[in-house]
Every structure is written in C-alpha cells, then in structure tokens.
C-alpha cells in the first residue's frame, strides 16, 4: 500500500469518526424527564407478541400449554365484546407461538364473529381469510402480521366511528391476557429477568386513566379491572429493585381472575 | 345550457381541481407513514417485525413531540420517522425513564428520514422524541413506526 492510499484510508476513517461524533453531538445526552412528561401525548401499548418474543429469549416455553380455543360466552354489551376481542387476538399470538394451525384458524373465525358483533366485521373479513391461508401454509410470520393488522384495522374502524374507548378496551384486553400468560410462565420457571418483563408501571397508569374516563361503561368487569390495576401497580413499580416471585404469583392470580371475568358471563 | 350556467360550471370545476391539487401538495400523515415504512423496509429483511400501528401528526420547524413507549429487555428495537416534505430534516431519539440517551451509535438521520436503534438495558418506559429540525413548510407531517426482533 502506498503512503497516499494509507493517508486516504486514514482520512476516510477520520471522516466517518467525525460524522459519528457530529451525530452524537446533535442529540442531547440527557433530557429533563419531568419537563418531557408534560409533552407526552401518546402512550404505545405493546402487542402480546412483543412480550412473548422477549420471554422466549429467556428459555424455551411450552406455548401449547397456553393455547385456548374453547368458545367464551356471547355478550351483547359492546365494552365486553371489545375486551374479549383483545383477549382473543392475544390468544391468536399464543397459538402462533405454539405453531398450532387448527387453533389459529379457529381463533381467526372467533375474531371475525366478535368483530361482527361490535359492528366492524367488514374491515376484518380479509384479515380472517389471510390468517386461515397463512396458518394452512404454516407461515407463522405472516399469521403474526395478519393478527397485528386485524387489531389495527378493528381499532381504526372503531376510531373512525368515534368509538375510541372501545378501541382502548381492545388493547387492554390483549394486554391483560398477555400479562396472565407472562406471569404463568414466570411463576413456573422464575427468573429475575422474566419477572422484569412485568416492569410496566406507566402502562398501568395509562390504562387506569383510560378506564377512569369511561364512566358510561358502568359494568362490574370494568370496575373489577380498575381496582385490580391498583392492586398490581405497587407490585411492579419497584424502581431499580427486582420484582419478587411472590409478586409475580399475586399478579398471576389477579389476571387469572380478570380473564375469567372477561370470558364468562357474570 | 345558458352562458351563466356554463361559466358557473367551469368556475366550480376549476375550484375543485385547485382544491384537489392543494390537498395533494400538502400531503397527509398517511403520506408521511409511507416514508417511515420506506425507511423500515431494509430492516424487515433482517427479521424485524414492523408494527401496523403508527403515530403521527404535524409539527412546526424546530418543534418536538414525545411518545412514551414500553420496551422489553431482550428485544431489539428500531424506530423509523418519515415525512413527505422532502426538503425537511427530521430526527428521532430515545431516552430512558431517567432521561438518559439510550440509543445505539448506528442510529441515523438523513434528510426527511431518521431512525433510532435501541437495545434496552432494562424493561420499562422510554421516551421517543420526534422533531422537525428544519422545514420549508409551516407545518410538517410526521409519522413514526417501530419494529422489534
């Protein structure tokens, strides 16, 4: 290598370094969280498969144990259907984790029926078909994507007709079912990293505030969820400490109770 | 058809065309989303699952907005920001719950696209800060999508 090409290479490395430094210099290393909290306008609710993905990396999980396909009660109250719909979509993600094609297809059909019950069936029909097709071909990534699209379409259709609160209940139903399964898995095979996945205090505050703003949905299950969120919050809002095995077990009991309330008639 | 009706029809048609053109030029948050998804495209091939939902709005030049996001240790995340205003410059940065910059050095900004890469050290709430750094428009649409693996 000539001296010229060596110096050229060195210059290139220096330039890349300078560019990276310039980029790093653009973003402040710290922000004032209290100040920023006032400007937060959106809170993103994770999908169950996001939590399941992290859980899977901690060790193999026997997902078949958590697959559920039995039919739940038929409800006429729209808030109850919305909660159940979120739960059933979460069941779909569990069935995908278990790679259980018949369960996925059955859940796809249930999602469609519940969506019809809440008046947004039209937007779901193509997704239900895509779920069935992808499950038949065992294309699990496509099923996951279609379940995500299903939830997104249901919520968009609800938002379009100003049913934002029902849309929020769909997210809440999915989150509760995801948390129930997460705590079941971690209770069976406890690890501090597994328990740490429950560290979601801001989401609890977010759901609590949303429920508070739904006085028109005066149903026992809604009130039960509200008080359950208050029970769960101190168990997960532990700062930099670990969430204990006992807390995980308690949250599992609470979410089991809520799940049973969501899927069965009062 | 008399002269007055003809003129009225032509004027109405002209107004409709002008309105449609101005809407087209102004763009929408959906347009911004298609640019955010364009930025995400190469990462899908690397196994990132991009969520269907997206977050968006409009900001003036120099304005910021914060989105709070729950991230899980063990997952790896990319956030992609886009706008349809091609001469705009946008940025996206991620901070942990204590306000410390939490993104990886390979996060990038390129004109009307920006992306932030996060491998969370702990499970918890993070702040996603989106900004329109510069723009020739008074208000600039933005859309944020994210993916994980």
What does the secondary structure layout of this molecule look like, with pairings?
The complex is a heterodimer of chains A (266) and B (149).
Chain A: H1 3-26, H2 33-37, E1 40-44, H3 48-56, H4 78-97, H5 101-117, H6 121-136, H7 140-160, H8 164-188, H9 192-196, H10 201-212, H11 220-236, H12 245-263
Chain B: H1 3-26, H2 29-44, E1 49-50, E2 55-59, E3 64-71, E4 77-82, E5 89-95, E6 108-110, E7 113-118, E8 124-134, E9 140-148
Antiparallel strand pairs in B: 1-9, 2-9, 3-8, 4-7, 4-9, 5-8, 6-7
Write a concise keyword list for the protein shown above:
heterodimer, A: 266 residues, mainly alpha, 12 helices, globular, B: 149 residues, alpha+beta, six-stranded antiparallel β-sheet, three-stranded antiparallel β-sheet, 2 helices, 9 strands
Molecular structure report:
The complex is a heterodimer of chains A (266) and B (149). Chain A is an all-alpha fold and 266 residues long. Chain B is 27% helix and 38% strand. In chain B, strands 1, 2, 4, 6, 7 and 9 form a 6-stranded antiparallel sheet that branches. In chain B, a hairpin with a 2-residue loop joins strand 6 and strand 7. The chains are: A mainly alpha (266), B alpha+beta (149). The interface between A and B is large, with 48 and 39 residues.
Gross morphology of chain A is globular
Strand content of chain A: under 5%
Largest sheet of chain B: 6 strands, antiparallel
Give the strand tally of chain A: 1
- Give the helix level of chain A as a range of percent: over 70%
Low-confidence stretches of chain B: 16-25
Label the structural class of chain B.
alpha+beta
């Amino acid at each position: 290598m000539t001296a010229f090409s060596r110096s050229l290479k060195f210059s290139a490395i220096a330039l890349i370094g300078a560019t990276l430094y310039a980029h790093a210099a653009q973003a402040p290393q710290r922000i004032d969280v209290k100040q920023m909290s006032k400007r937060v306008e959106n809170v993103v609710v994770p999908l169950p498969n996001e939590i399941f993905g992290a859980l899977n990396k901690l060790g193999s999980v026997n997902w078949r144990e958590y697959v559920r396909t039995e039919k739940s009660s038929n409800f006429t109250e729209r808030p109850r259907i919305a909660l159940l719909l979120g739960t059933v979509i979460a069941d779909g993600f569990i069935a995908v984790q278990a790679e259980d094609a018949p369960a996925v297809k059955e859940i796809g059909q249930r999602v469609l029926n519940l969506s019809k019950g809440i008046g947004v069936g039209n937007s779901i029909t193509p997704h239900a078909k895509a779920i069935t097709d992808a499950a038949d071909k065992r294309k699990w990534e496509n099923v996951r994507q279609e379940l995500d699209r299903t939830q997104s379409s249901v919520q968009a259709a609800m938002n379009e007709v100003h049913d934002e609160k029902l849309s929020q209940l769909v997210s809440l139903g999915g989150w509760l079912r995801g948390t129930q399964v997460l705590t079941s898995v971690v209770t069976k095979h406890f690890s501090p990293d597994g328990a740490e996945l429950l560290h979601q205090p801001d989401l609890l505050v977010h759901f609590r505030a949303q429920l508070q703003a739904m006085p028109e949905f005066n149903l026992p299950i809604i009130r039960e969820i509200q008080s359950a969120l208050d029970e769960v919050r101190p168990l997960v809002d532990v700062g930099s400490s670990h969430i204990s095995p006992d807390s995980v077990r308690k949250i599992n009991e609470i979410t089991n109770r809520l799940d049973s309330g969501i899927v069965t008639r009062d | 058809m008399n002269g007055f009706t003809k003129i009225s029809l032509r004027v109405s048609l002209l107004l409709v065309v002008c309105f449609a053109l101005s809407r087209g030029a102004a763009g929408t948050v959906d347009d911004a989303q298609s640019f955010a998804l364009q930025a995400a495209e190469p990462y899908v091939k690397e196994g990132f699952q991009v969520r269907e939902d997206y977050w968006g709005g409009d900001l003036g030049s120099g304005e910021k907005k914060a989105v709070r996001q729950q991230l899980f240790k063990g997952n790896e995340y990319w956030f992609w920001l886009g706008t349809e205003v091609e001469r705009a410059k946008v940025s996206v940065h991620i901070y942990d719950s204590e306000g410390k910059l939490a993104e990886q050095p390979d996060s990038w900004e390129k004109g009307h696209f920006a992306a932030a890469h996060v491998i969370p050290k702990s499970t918890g709430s993070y702040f996603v800060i989106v900004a329109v750094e510069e723009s020739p428009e008074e208000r600039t649409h933005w859309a944020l999508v994210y993916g994980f693996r």
